[in-house]
Amino acid sequence: MEKLYQEIILDHYRTPHHFGLRDPFDTEVHHVNPTCGDEVTLRVRLDQATAPGDGSAAVTDGIVVSDISYEAMGCSISQASTSVLTDLAIGRPLDDVLSTLDEFTRMVTSRGTVEGDEDVLGDGIAFAGVAKYPARVKCALLGWMAFKDAAVQSVDTMDSAHTGGADTSGTDTSDTDTAADNAGAPVTADQERTSLR
Amino acid sequence: MTDQLELGAVSTGPAAGDLPEVSVVADDELTAARSEPSGPSLDAVDIDRIRADFPILHRTVRDGKPLVYLDSGATSQRPVPVIDAEQEYVTGHNAAVHRGAHQLAEEATDFYESARERIAAFVGVGRSDEVVFTKNATEAINLVAYAFGNATYSTDPAAQRFVLRPGDEILVTEMEHHANLVPWQELCRRTGATLRWIPVTDDFRLDLTDIDELINPRTKVVAFTHQSNVLGTINPVDVLVAAAHRVGALTVLDACQSVPHQQVDLPALGVDFAAFSGHKMLGPSGVGVLYGRYELLAAMPPFLTGGSMIEQVFMDRSTYAAPPARFEAGVPMTSQAVGLGAAVDYLGDLGMAAIAAHEAVLTRYALQELSALPGVRIIGPADTTDRGSAVSFVVDGVHAHDVGQILDDAGVQVRVGHHCAWPLHRRFGIAATVRASFAVYNTLDEVDVLVAAVRDAQRFFGVS
Questions:
Q1: Single pTM value for the model
Q2: At CB < 8 Å, which residues of chain B contact A?
């Protein structure tokens, strides 16, 4: 049991980092685990730190994860993994975070065949034990998948703003609020970010 | 509007008050924690013999821990006679039933229909054509909901009694499994009828205070569970059936958690329809049962259509077979039905009264021991009065999923989550519960393992 519930996980569960919903944000998503009812509401704020490349670069090029904030209800694994995610992601380039996310996903879905790279995963390595319990994989990924969803939607919004389009129809679900749809502070932030580009 | 519909106007159900007592056993006082019951329960020797019939109970899990299977509310384990019956059928008699004139087809059909007759008799149904085989109980409830919906488009005058329109009401309860909720939500969406529900009280019973308003002349269907799969609560079928029939509404009983655990006589309960599943009553998965009063089944349009449910087929139209064939389109599950026939034989040989008494002993002991733990709250009635063997609980400070993980490490297999009753959990402001559910093969020692593991979980997460 101690292999699954490493001390790091229990620490993050008892004292989650970056907890609570904050402004400004680009995108808010609400994800649930339908099998157990765990849920997370998660906001992502991205910024264009450096000018995007000449068009040949990936759309995520130069984007930094400025903030992730969340409220969640769930088991220790889902709560702790979301907390660890915020530690690993906030302030880092989006490309790096997405690589970390891929490595984390690869590890926890491997049934124990992938050890995970601690240099990439940091505290995320503590979730290696989850891989042995397939029923808990969804718990470990709940916050991470919410982040991925929110980040992709934010990038889409940034991209359409950059190219002059304003088509957010692909992200306009009842579970999603994008800054473009929101009156108030996030719009100002959005304009500010656009000016950076 | 109501006189057009006449739903359930011809009821053969008995009047309230004539109904048999559905409570599993007299709730005699718990004098000693582990005293044997004085009633017709099974003794330890019986249980040892019964356990010997279930090969899976002798395996280990998680590095050599003896299996403590407390998830029979989700699916039960199968005894050798059930496994053998399926094997005998498949190895010796397999063919497509109700087709072909060869010997194997005849034998297969006999196996299938014999199972239907024994299953019907098991729930007190005298005529086996009131028993329809379905994939599972979920499909059985959907069958009724879709047949009612299809009545809107039927040209058969007999089907008009099932037509639902805006202004009509379907009544469910707040403690329903999703399988007896979502199909009715969908039927309301398709027909414009209104879904209403009976609330649940703080002490985990149906709140019948406003029942005369909730069941009113607009009510066309009353769908409710016999026994909650979360709370264990056994509902007052007689009260609801009487109220429904007073206004001509049809009743649909989810009997998934009652039929496997107590003697149930569906015609005596007076319900119009009932659904239960094979895999929760020591039988195979892939087979469920819809019971319907014949007069209603005979008037209902089909749900699934195709082979073997027809009477005559022309290029542009078809007529339908009489029930139950009308509702069994395609080649049905056969070895599963045969296995379920063997399961009801097995349950019948043990005796449902003895099974109910044994499970009541386990339930009473589990309720006592779990509620004695500080920080553990039972989500369900605190004693065994009108209560079945699903024992759900929360552990303060430890999420149900985490409790379940520690239990699993001790070999204890329980269900965690909302158990397909999300609105009920929301009603009590909890995201998830841990549920231990018992069957005839469980023991008091297994309850002790459960309780010790819950204590371990509290220690592990630092809340004790």
A1: 0.86
A2: 399-402, 405-406, 409, 416-418, 422, 425, 431-432, 460-461
